[in-house]
Amino acid sequence: MRHIYFLAFLAFIGFACNSGPENPADKIFINGTIYTVDESNPKVEAVAVKDGMIQAIGSSAEIQELAGENTEVVDLEGKTMTPGFIESHAHLMGIGYNKLELDLMYVKTYDELVEKVAEAVAKAKPGDWITGRGWHQDKWIEKPEKMVKGFQTNEPLNAVSPDNPVFLRHASGHASFANSKALELAGIANLKGERPGEVEGGEIITDELGNPTGVLTERASSLVARLVPEETPERAEEALTLALQELVEKGITSFHDAGSGQGVIDLVQKFKDEGKLTVRQYIMLTGRQPELLEEWYKKGPMIDTEDHLLTVRSIKLNCDGALGPRGAWLLEDYADRPGHRGHETLPMSVVTEVSEKALPLGFQVCSHAIGDRANQEILDRYEAAFTKFPDATDHRFRIEHAQHLHPDDIPRFGELGVIAAMQAIHLSSDRPWAIDRLGKKRIIDGAYVWQKLFQTGARICNGTDAPVEPVDPIPSFYASVTRKTLEGLPEGGYEGDQKMTREQALKSYTLDGAYAEFEEDFKGSIEVGKAADFTVFDQNIMEVPEDEILKTQVAMTVMGGQVVFKK
Length: 567
Prior knowledge:
Elements: H1 2-19, E1 27-30, E2 33-35, E3 43-44, E4 46-50, E5 53-58, H2 60-64, E6 72-75, E7 80-83, E8 85-90, H3 92-98, E9 102-103, H4 110-123, E10 130-135, E11 147-148, E12 151-152, H5 155-160, E13 166-170, E14 175-178, H6 180-185, E15 198-199, E16 202-206, E17 212-218, H7 222-225, H8 233-249, E18 252-260, H9 262-273, E19 280-286, H10 290-299, E20 310-318, H11 348-361, E21 364-369, H12 372-388, E22 398-401, H13 410-416, E23 419-421, H14 425-438, H15 440-446, H16 450-455, E24 460-461, H17 473-482, H18 502-508, H19 511-515, E25 534-537, E26 554-559, E27 562-566
Parallel strand pairs: 1-6, 2-7, 8-18, 9-10, 10-13, 18-19, 19-20, 20-21, 21-22, 22-23, 23-24
Antiparallel strand pairs: 1-4, 2-3, 4-5, 7-25, 11-12, 13-14, 14-17, 15-16, 16-17, 25-26, 26-27
Helix pairs in contact: 3-8, 11-12, 14-15, 14-17
């Protein structure tokens, strides 16, 4: 009898082993250090994925029980996993085109810039345009001998490119640098009293004789930019392919594109239809095309509730310039340029008009504002619109950058529910020279004030503003928690009381980024029922010494349960 029971027991065990779990996972990730950004269950070892969604989380032993015959097992080998990083403010096509043009982001001197242009001219045909982006005079290790209003002049550029027009965008995107050939084609080769340097919403920088130096700030850049040949569809596809590859290599699973036209939306849709969209896209309609906005007002937001790959439900307005070219709109004069307060690059009446049209239609408004005057004016207009449409309570209007605020306006972010879409890396890059623009008091009181904003109940979503900065989130995470330059200076960081905790920084790059696009119930944290979007790092960014953070590499990027990048 015992023999019969034993055989029956063996048969039962065999049946149990062969049957496996009732609902096996498609893929499991085990043996990791996994930060969920879920306060109720902040850290686990393993995750199970089914149909692109998170099926279960827990210990490696628990999750292995969901492994069936066809389940793919990914051993993280102790690496650190977080929710997929969300880039909350950057320029998709700019990242791609930056790889097809002269990349001046890492140029250290004006002479080096001129050398790069000379190399490009040698490969070009006479008359071909030489274009590029990324130069920033305040980041050069040495300044040229001749400077006008804080900028270089174009004589050396003219010498190496007499026959090819040159147009080089500033890293900030709020100024440009052209040679005499390009200025001649634009009809501004010599002003000498014929036309003022000031143009509406911008400035043509001129020397003491009235000659243009080649530097155009804010909207003045369009005088030359409109002459640059338009991109071809083939080149646009190449740029988008390069941009998507860059994003997955840097651990980005979702991307907020800060202002594009219908052409970009259609191209991204094409990539989606062809199965080539490896990063979720949240595209803001550019406010520079009023006719485009009118078309979208008629048809309403496009919210992707099926696969969450492409949503268009927000509008980007460019309301002032940047601190670097002294285009940010200030309440008081620039400390290093008395009598100058920057530029209102968009009439504030437009902010009122767009806000009041957008609210009842369900569109979010995202306004670029760097200077304290611009931030104040936009908050005023947002508040008026909210008062006019009190039923539109979940608006999630944003201010992009919110870099320099008047102390009186800081509490208004929390009170009004306005999201501060900030890029911590700008602190590392700009703070060493920003104090020259604003002076010490304005810096301390209202520049990059992350903790002051958190204390009002405001949400901060993080990013890089690429291609203004590289799209890599690790330097921005480092800047968030250290407030140092990427060289590790100064000791203790700039205005150290405003540092984010590592938990705040991680949330700003994940769950708060998802909130900023109305997707916090779908992604942004590692919870059952949410999208299986993950970033895997080769070391623990939450625990390593701060001087080790910048050495971190992305080991794997997972979007919708699919590995889209593996190192």
